[in-house]
Structures are given as structure tokens and as C-alpha cells.
């Protein structure tokens, strides 16, 4: 006899960081398969990153993404590029992009290394989602640039994406102690795995790469004490063939939409999971919740990637037993 589990209604989740690969890389993911994957994971809104082809640096691409999403009655919040073609040389037209539907700006896919351009972006007072690759070094100078924008009389908005290293957590914690209004996210793979888990394929390959045991502990501590505000997925699907190449040949990125709630719930419990995946993302993005989802918090399930809704069926979570199941009737 199948065991009956108590169903709990909770606010729907928002993912501040996904790659739906559309337009340009639809063999990896499409708006449709990305939305299906998000819904399966309990999300009812996602922020799509701009490293598409063409780059989401103009209103036409934003309108195309929103048009494709419209028929699914799902909230896609496009993130537009900070600089044209992600090249760190010339700012995009923030006003035009925001009018077209951009919710924030990021060069996710490539870090911004031009400090003058980064300062100008912060002085726009729009939400800047910072993708750091040489993570701690970039977090350090970007916090200093944020301070400079304040000195010049602006009210910058800075959010650090996919934080993965202890030194980065320490820098952000110190900035918050100094009353800097900076926010940060991590992803479940950074509090689940370490570099000791990496195999000879691209299954565990992402950027920033997995850290040490000390990094993993620091991420967990940062989530507990509020240094890290958000759990996002950095859902970044590729074809199965690409991910199964030898590690150094495989592209960066793993899927995460369909496992993130359970992994976070197992670590943080329900109250903090909702804080990191529902309340804080909406607060940062300045959006309101209009939907609820159903979960069976005591239900356990085994991760079977071939059943995922995303196109990519390769997952580092394969075979793991997770607790807390999203129920989509």
C-alpha cells in the first residue's frame, strides 16, 4: 500500500539565475523545456541570463524571449547584458532594455573586468548581477567600486551570483557588517559537493568550480547567518554528449531546477528555504508573489535524470536520495 504524505502549500519559488539557451542554443534547452523543468522544481518565475545568441543586449531579444514565454503563463524575467555583446567595453542602453522588460543587468557568461565600466553600471542604480570567475579577487574590487559609487552620491544595487569560496563569503559578510546593501546567492552544488567529487567527465564541471571542504562549510555558514541571501540554481544545460566529454573538454554548467528545492530543504529546513528561494529573491527583484505550490515535505525520492523535463539528462545528483518533493498535479 502506497504511503500517503501530508501536502503543504508554500509560496512558489523564484530562481534568480538560469540559462534557458534560447535564442541560439536550443539544442541545449528551449524556453519550453526550461519552463517545464522550472515548474517541475516548484518555480513559477526565473531570471534568464543574457549569454544567448544573439546576446540579450537589445530590446528585440528581450521581446522575443517574453513572446515565447507568454503562451506558457509562466513568469520569465529577462536579465539583459551590462555591456554590448558581453565585451566589457560599452554599456548597453539600460533605459531601453528596462522598458522592453529587463528586470536586471548582468554579463553572466563573462566577467566584467573593466572597473570604469563596472562603476558606470553601478551608477545607473539598476540591479547589477555580478558574474565573477576569478571569484574572490573580483568580489573584492567590486565591493570597493560599490563604495566609490556611494561616495559619488549614487545608490548602487549589487548582487553577487553563484558564490562558492570561503574568502568571498568572508568579504561579503564584512561588507554587510559595514552596512553595505549588497546581496549574494549560492547554488546547491556548492553546499552539496566539493572538488573531491569531480570525476573524469564534465558531470561536475561548472564555473566557478567546486571548492574545498572549507569552502563548502563557509557556504553553509553563510546561508545560516544571512551573509548569503539567495539560493539560485545557475541551471545551465548542455547536450548530454557535451557533458560526457572528458572533464577539460566539457563545457561549464550543470542543471539544477528539478533538485534545488529538496537539496536546500534538507540543509536549511522549510523556513530558511522559503527565505532563500521565495521571499528574498522577490524582495531583491521587487516583485510580488501571486501563486502557491504544493510540496510533500516528508516524501523521499531518488534522482533519476532521464526523467527530468530539461533537455540535459546528465546530473551530478544522479542516484541521490532526496527529501521534500514538489507536487505538480
Indicate the low-confidence ranges by residue numbers. Answer: none
CATH superfamily: Metal-dependent hydrolases
- Report the CATH C-level class: Alpha Beta
Q: Numbering strands along the chain, what is their spatial order in the largest sheet?
A: 2-3-4-5-6-7-8-9
Oligomer designation: single chain
User: Main β-sheet, in a few words?
Assistant: 8 strands, parallel
* Helix-strand makeup class: alpha/beta
Give the radius of gyration: 19 Å
Share in β-strands: 15-25%
On the 0 to 100 scale, the average pLDDT is 97
Number of strands: 11
Summed up, the helix count is 10
* Cα-to-Cα separation, first versus last residue: 20 Å
CATH-defined topology: TIM Barrel
Overall morphology? globular
Order of helices and strands: EEHEHEHEHEHEHEHHEHHEE
> Could you estimate the helical fraction of the residues in percent?
25-40%
Number of domains: 1
- CATH architectural designation: Alpha-Beta Barrel
Describe the structure.
The structure is a single chain. The protein is of the alpha/beta class and 329 residues long. It has a single domain (12-292), classed as Metal-dependent hydrolases (TIM Barrel), CATH 3.20.20. 35% of the residues lie in helices and 18% in strands. The chain has ten helices and eleven strands. The protein has helices spanning 31-40, 59-70, 94-100, 115-123, 135-151, 166-177, 188-192, 213-225, 240-243, 260-285; strands spanning 8-11, 13-18, 43-48, 75-80, 104-106, 127-130, 157-160, 182-186, 230-231, 292-302, 321-327. The strands form two sheets. Strands 2-3-4-5-6-7-8-9 form an eight-stranded parallel sheet. Helix 2 links the parallel strand 3 (43-48) and strand 4. Helix 2 (59-70) runs parallel beside helix 3 (94-100) and helix 5 packs parallel to helix 6 (166-177). It is globular and about 65 Å long. The relative contact order is 0.16. The mean pLDDT is 97.
